[in-house]
Amino acid sequence: MEENNEKAEIYSQRVRAGKRTYFFDVKSTRSNDFYVTITESKRKFKEDSFSYEKHKIFLYKEDFLKFMDALQETIDHVKSELLTEEALAALENPVKEGEEAPFDEELKWE
């Protein structure tokens, strides 16, 4: 059974995004077919303990191109039609983990 588990997961990448973590995993079926799982994991606190709430999407290879096209079109729409120039600039130059955000000399209250 262990050999099957090692074969099942081929590649994994983690993206930390605030309170959420996203996992992109490539897996294989018994017949050596490949698919991707996208998992959103969010830590939930309850009293003195915590648990993880997870949501998973299975993406099969025959749908990769359609999925990528739709995701890219959606992102492009948000960037070109919905974001302000300032918000777009912040997206294109994100503050990396461990770095402090630059401060403007003037405080701005919204």
Automatic annotation (TrEMBL):
Transmembrane segments: none annotated. The keyword DNA-binding applies. It comes from the Bacteria. One of its GO terms (molecular function) is purine-rich negative regulatory element binding. The keyword DNA-binding applies. InterPro entries: PUR-bd_fam. Keywords: DNA-binding. Belongs to the PUR DNA-binding protein family. This is RNA-binding protein. It comes from Pontibacter flavimaris.
